[in-house]
Amino acid sequence: HRLAVLISGSGTNLQAILDAIDAGSLEARVTLVLSNRADAGGLQRARRAGVDTAVIDHRDYPDRPAFDHAMIRELDAHGADTVALAGFMRILSSDFVRHYDGRLINIHPSLLPLHRGLHTHARALEAGDREHGCSIHFVTEELDGGPLIAQARLPILANDTPETLSKRVQEYEHGLYPEVLQWRAAGRLRLTTQGVALDGEIL
Ligand code: GRF
């Protein structure tokens, strides 16, 4: 299974994916790690693992479609059965989303549909939520709104801060993302017109 990973930052989820491949629990090959930022820490992680990297800086393109088409060219040149967003901080155009229809997956640090967008940990605390977590979903044109694949939930503790919460959520992310990607690698997970199907059953 050919996996491409899009990042903008430190890439701890990318690291979890690379580690799972190393450990044999994720039967995939990362064909490309693509970042929109040259200083993304995840690029080092990819290089250390001997994975091809590319930087496509959105500031070098006149508009979002031009940037997205540059990414499509690079991704398709490397081959990708699944494109995993792992802390990729740009909104994708409908052209991009449609091009990878059913192959594009994102991880988001909240229990969607709660807290789409940024600052999810602070917002969960402000809202007085008792639970928080992360969600993995197929990407559609609606931001953080695509069909859900899996979630991990954890209780919010009385003395949690956005930082402590973020740290605990990330630990769950690092377990869940490689697991879901293995479902893809094993051909068990599909996006159908009916919704998300795992082993042929609609979730
Ligand atoms: C994660 O919390 C992920 O849910 C969100 O961005 C963060 C990326 O962290 N989309 P990292 O770069 O994988 O460390």
TrEMBL record:
Span of the signal peptide: none
EC number, UniProt record: 2.1.2.2
UniProt-recorded Gene Ontology molecular function terms: phosphoribosylglycinamide formyltransferase activity
SUPFAM superfamilies: Formyltransferase (SSF53328)
NCBIfam families referenced in this protein's UniProt entry, alphabetically: PurN
Annotated positions binding N(1)-(5-phospho-beta-D-ribosyl)glycinamide: 11-13
Residues marked Raises pKa of active site His (site): 144
The entry's keywords: Purine biosynthesis, Transferase
Active site positions: 108
Purpose of the protein: Catalyzes the transfer of a formyl group from 10-formyltetrahydrofolate to 5-phospho-ribosyl-glycinamide (GAR), producing 5-phospho-ribosyl-N-formylglycinamide (FGAR) and tetrahydrofolate.
Protein name in UniProt: Phosphoribosylglycinamide formyltransferase
Gene Ontology cellular-component annotations: cytosol
A GO BP entry: 'de novo' IMP biosynthetic process
Known pathway: Purine metabolism; IMP biosynthesis via de novo pathway; N(2)-formyl-N(1)-(5-phospho-D-ribosyl)glycinamide from N(1)-(5-phospho-D-ribosyl)glycinamide (10-formyl THF route): step 1/1
Enzyme class: transferase
Domain Formyl transferase N-terminal: 2-181
Record-listed (6R)-10-formyltetrahydrofolate binding positions: 64, 89-92, 106
Catalysed reactions, as listed in the record: N(1)-(5-phospho-beta-D-ribosyl)glycinamide + (6R)-10-formyltetrahydrofolate = N(2)-formyl-N(1)-(5-phospho-beta-D-ribosyl)glycinamide + (6S)-5,6,7,8-tetrahydrofolate + H(+)
Family the UniProt entry places it in: Belongs to the GART family.
Organism: Alloalcanivorax xenomutans
Gene from which this protein is expressed: purN
